[in-house]
Amino acid sequence: MSSRLGFKSLCFLEGRDRVDAVDTRLVASYAVAITFDVLMPVGMVLWARRRLGVAWKVVGWGAAAFALSQLFTRLPMVQVAQYFMRDALKTSSVLLGVWIVVLSLTAGLFEETARLWAFRKPLKDFRRWRDAVGFGVGHGGLESALLVGGLTALGLVNVIALSKLDPSTLPLKPEQVAQVVEAKATIAALDWWMPLLGAYERLGSMVVHIALSVVVLQRFIRGEVKWYWLAVGAHAFFNALTVVVGKLATAAWGPQAGAFAGEAMVTVAALVSLWVILYFRRVDAERDTAAVPARE
């Protein structure tokens, strides 16, 4: 990296009038990913409404649960903590491992507790399989459209701005110029299709959110608290597994392998989640059949 950075710096010093061109394929990939991040949840909501008859209240509380458990609470706390630990996280692999565990556990606790509270209080009259599906669509939909879509849009802005930026023309300190050059080098090394992996991940995450909502709902249908803790544990486990496998693959074979390895774990989680969703759909249908009195 240091030799590449030095080469990039030399290029800027020798060619001040040159401005790097923007990779149109990368821009197009970002645009497709942003569009998918925003429109996929819309399509899922419409499907849940028309096919399953899910109430708007259920979808709305699913979205509110994500906002309350992540946007307004956990994520701000995580950002503050990471800011103060930024240097230590770069130098200590042990602390980084502990931090990954903390992030995974808190994600499970915050989000699954929000689901539990929603089905206990505002949605106490909406405790059917279809309601859990609609709740999961609202929960994962807000994450995809607002959080992930917003961050992807910000990434696109950074790509365009940095690609056109010549730091040698700006009144920056040498270390600041080096940071900008390194950022440009990172963008230049980014494969044009990489943003599409993020869009693929959103689809898998949506399936996981629906399955976790279905599992938490069993706390009330079956009257056993173990279902809540099962959802917390599954959420934390798959979060940690995705990050750890991605990092190990990156260290062994490079960023591309790390990205694909992480998405492979998302795929596994999505397939398991799909089985959970279909299993409890069958259980819900059997319950309905048993509740209908037999005709003489």
Structural domain count: 1
* Count of discrete alpha- or pi-helical segments spanning 4 or more residues: 10
Distance between the termini: 80 Å
The main sheet comes to: none
Principal-axes geometry comes out as elongated
Portion of residues in beta strands equals under 5%
Radius of gyration: 23 Å
InterPro entries: YhfC
Pfam families: YhfC
Organism: Myxococcus xanthus (strain DK1622)
Transmembrane segments: 27-47, 54-72, 92-111, 132-161, 203-221, 228-253, 259-280
What labels describe this entry?
single chain; elongated; Membrane protein; 10 helices; YhfC; 296 residues; mainly alpha; transmembrane; membrane
Summarize the structure.
With 296 residues, the chain is mainly α. It has helices at 2-14, 24-52, 56-84, 86-91, 93-120, 129-164, 174-188, 194-221, 226-253, 255-291. Helix content is 84%, strand content 0%.
